[in-house]
Amino acid sequence: MTWRSPLALVRDALRGQRAREKDLRNLVSNLPYEGLEKGKQPNRYFPGNAIKTTKYSLLFFIPMNLFEQFHRLANIYFVGLAILNFVPVVNAFQPEVALIPICVIMCLTALKDAWEDFRRYQSDRKLNNTPCFIYSKKAKEFIERRWKDVRVGDFVKVISNEIVPADLLLLHTSDRNGVCHIETSNLDGETNLKQRRVVPGVCTSDPDFEPESFSSLVVCEKPNNNLNHFKCYVEKPDKGKVGAGIESLLLRGCTVRNTDHAVGFVVYAGHETKSMLNNNGPRYKRSKLERKLNIDVIFCVILLFFMCLIGALGHFLWLQALPAVPPYLVPNSNGHLDSPALSGFYMFFTMIILLQVLIPISLYVSIELVKIGQIFFITNDIDLYDEATDSRMQCKALNITEDLGQIEYIFSDKTGTLTENKMVFRRCSIMGTEYPHKENAVRLAVLEEPDAEEDVLFNKRPQPVKARWSLDTEDTNFEDKQHQHGTRRKSKVAGNAQSNVAFSSPLVSGFSHSLQRNNPTDPLYNTPKKSGFLSNIFSSWRRKPKRKRTISEDSVVEGDIFNLPVKMEEPGDISGLRRCSLYVPTNSDKPATTSDNLSYEAESPDEAALVYAAKAYGFTLLARTPDSVTVRLPSGEDLVFEVLDTLTFDSIRKRMSILVRDPITKKYVLYTKGADYAIMELLGTPYAENLRGNQKNIAADTQHHLDCYAKDGLRTLCFTKKVVSDKEYKSWLANRQRALAAIENREELVMDTAVQLETNLSLLGATGIEDRLQESVPDTIVALREAGIQVWVLTGDKPETAVNIGYACRLLEDEDLVINMSCKNKLTCTSILDCALQEVRRYNEDPRNVDTTPDISLVIDGLTLNMALSSDLQDRFVDLAKHCRSVLCCRVTPLQKSRVVKVVREKLKVMTLAVGDGANDVNMIQAADIGIGISGQEGMQAVMASDFAISRFKHLKKLLLVHGHWCYTRLANMIIYFFYKNVAYVNLLFWYQFFCGFSGTAMIDYWLMIFFNLFFTSAPPIMFGIMDKDVSAEMLLGVPELYRTGQGEGEYNFSTFWVSMLDAFYQSLACFFIPYLTVVHWIIIVGSVVLYFVVTLAYSAICVTCNPPSNPYWILPSQMADPMFYLLCLITTVVALLPRYTFHVLRNSIAPSPLVQARHLDRLDPSTRSEWIKEWRSFRGGAQVKSSRLSTPPSPTLETPVGIYPQSPTVSDIMGDEIHTECYQ
């Protein structure tokens, strides 16, 4: 290695920084420069692939860890006091002793940090030494190296089932279609396979790919953490440019599947890879209780300041009052005594050292230990375990468990959160004619019967119905199917995987399906054709007696039905079925796939539902490659469509398209699917302004069917077709290629090309797919509302569907007055808000409505919500929403979801919780105080962005009502106890100063003062914070109103804190002056802990000269030999605790809180308690309890005198149709 001057090193460092900060990077192959020194390497400025996630090094661990710990103000405070104690004029006791508490705390913290960092070091070393294959020019082949040896510009070969070592631009695969399948579960938690394609036209698909032949320039963007976007183009030697995006990038951490091998060009390495840029470590949120705790610590500091000021002033007055200089005042080195004023100044700092225990040094450590214990019990709760998915509760934020007990608002997604996200194909409209899918309707009816299981469907064969075409019953082994679908557990096995798409599975093909035209007896056919939303602003919607408990979500399907993955497995598959992959298998010599043994895998259950429905009617999707789609017709003929391009879905267009060449006519045809409102806006419906003749009638009929589908709670999609001329295609293709090769504004240019082609579409029809509610969702929502939590559902559904959602999950009740806000302009929105607020205020001013809330619910669409959240209407909207029992937002975007959460949280100053399961819920989850992700069918993005993860919505009930309540009450009481015991203990020293001239002398031994916090009183509050149960889980679930005790200020508030402080002051007075008045001056503190006496006895018996000059030798044994000692212990304890017990007895006898009543009921035997809860709930009638007190019904079975509080009248009883009428006058 040659010597280089420091100036050259600095120059290279600056050049490297500039190269890394450029918006575009020019990368070339390292092969021509192999063997040269680093200074001659073209990509030398970019970091290597070795990673380092450790925070410390062995040499600098101690100074760096101390620096890290001194970021905590509490540590600086106690270290400063320990140093101050080394100053002779102000020291209160031995300087070395003062260092022990803070040294113990900091050493324990350092050991924990060292262990965590050592584990990170082991993980880094394992990753950096993982083997991989890098191409060598000298060896003319791929040789085995380590991950840490990979550099930008290398060619890396990844074998099947291996992890990708760096971000690779895919150049070659073993698949003849240039496709590579990857699993991204390490990045986003999704286990479904994703497809990556080689950069087209750069390298041949020759199996003997030679990296040395690659002489192109790779131009890519600066590294960023966006896992879904990548901008790059490859400039060939002939200056031609080929665009590449995320579909050609293999990300570090992904696993290659179903591909023998893939070769890629390294574009990002090490800490610049997208996975490392997304590795931000554990999230940290500060809980509401912790914020309140910090304020109270400041109060304690202020209290300490005044106590020290009193001590300093008292010492000054005492010295001035002395008639002569007493012999025990020692002069300084000059033989002079300090003046009283200077002595008082010094005494101020001495008192700070003496009374420092007032600030609880061990409180923060104890809180961390308690939260770890609470998380352990939450995650191991068997009731929060889901056997179907074999998943349990996960906790990702370790320091906000107590916030679970203070939630006031819940914002929930719908699909996959409230519903199963398992789709049933129910109806479709084709060219204006409506067709019902009878078989799935029959199956749904069977499943909705009580105690019905999916297994029964396998033994039922509906009779064939005469139709235009039908499928014969396939020769399928029903016993195998029953075995496969009898469980809901996820599995890679084909048969079990099919159950993941509910009725969107080969189950359908087990029947004789038919497609039949509607007849006049069909209820939907006879529905009056009435388009548009509800006619009234205020409408009392009543749920029909047999309203279907089925709901739908956003009609937009963000998946790619045209790229539907389908697997082909070996005949030895235990399911007995073979899966045909829409991605072409690597081995081309496999036998041809028949329609009998197909099983599809899809990114979205909607896609599988549509493909299985098409298969049921004889149109079977046989194969899907990057360049073709093979479909088998009912006649048995196979059609192969050449795929020319796919216009992917985006949140602005709300649709996606595929451009194919018709195999018969050879014409270019564009098929488009998307959200109904996005497609219909292109057509100009509901009035079909852009259409003529028959197309106008088809659009109007289809719009009518879509409205009916939405009212029936179905997910809706529209499909269109367009024939593209050769001239139009060639012109469009040139624009498309330029957009794909662009770096700047690439997304906008690509979207513009899609919009350019998606014009003059011809409507083909629409589909209606059903999604079922999860188990116990209505009961959970009712319980949450009874607990005083307002539930908002934010969905992308149409307003009609949103209402169906509300009634199905009991978000809306029959007696609710539903306010519908659907406006086209801001003036109308303003008038509706003013009118509604006026009626709400009139209701609240009525003396008959004291302590009640109106049963009002709000339904608002996305356009109106956008206007309502504007700066001038925001306050009025929030004011109205807080008076509503529930709010239903429909047609909302992901950004609107997060904005709603932020506005409510900031305006109302309430604790919020957001729950969702998809990537579109991430912003909402991160905006709330607590984010909860549900691991469902839409991947794991929501789970990875959340603070807690559950598998079913029903788990939210116990998580909040039981664990949330317990965690909050435990921590709140533990913190109050910490302050109470420290203040009571410190004041013993403070009262003693009145009898020792405020000289800073302690009547308690220094070592015992240290042991008091570290040992004697540390374990009880920690165990209390982890294990205490003020009320049983059964009572908390049976009476959800008990949850309200933690909302708002909760149990830990300003008054409880200062009442505890005053109680501690009083108890310290009792503990000090009762022994003092009986001439017992050296009693330390009354305690009931045996450890205290054991340690003190041993210490005073052994330690002869441990604490000069006032050595503790044989003090306690002599005291314990005197009977007066035991009498004083008894009297002091009784007098000290008497006021507290008297207060609690009077309060619980005259005005018992709901928790006290619940504890009383917990003492009853289980049968009596459950009967009481049942009678109380029946008395309440399931309605929301308006009062914060626990309403008790007159129960003849109860012998306990619990106060009876009558149920409040509902708004419908008092208001009637008053609001509905007066708003229109």
Provide a brief overview of the structure.
It comes from Nibea albiflora. By secondary structure, the chain is an alpha+beta fold.
Please explain how this structure is put together.
This is Phospholipid-transporting ATPase VB. Residues 448-593, 1078-1089 and 1181-1225 have low confidence and may be disordered. Strands 14-33-32-31-15-27-30-29-28-18 form a 10-stranded mixed β-sheet, with helices on both faces. Strands 16, 17, 19, 20, 21, 22, 23, 24, 25 and 26 form a 10-stranded antiparallel β-sheet that branches. A 6-stranded antiparallel β-sheet has the order 3-2-4-13-5-11, with no helix packed on it. By secondary structure, it is α+β, with helices and mostly antiparallel strands. Strand 9 and strand 10 (241-244) form a beta hairpin. It contains 37 helices and 33 strands.
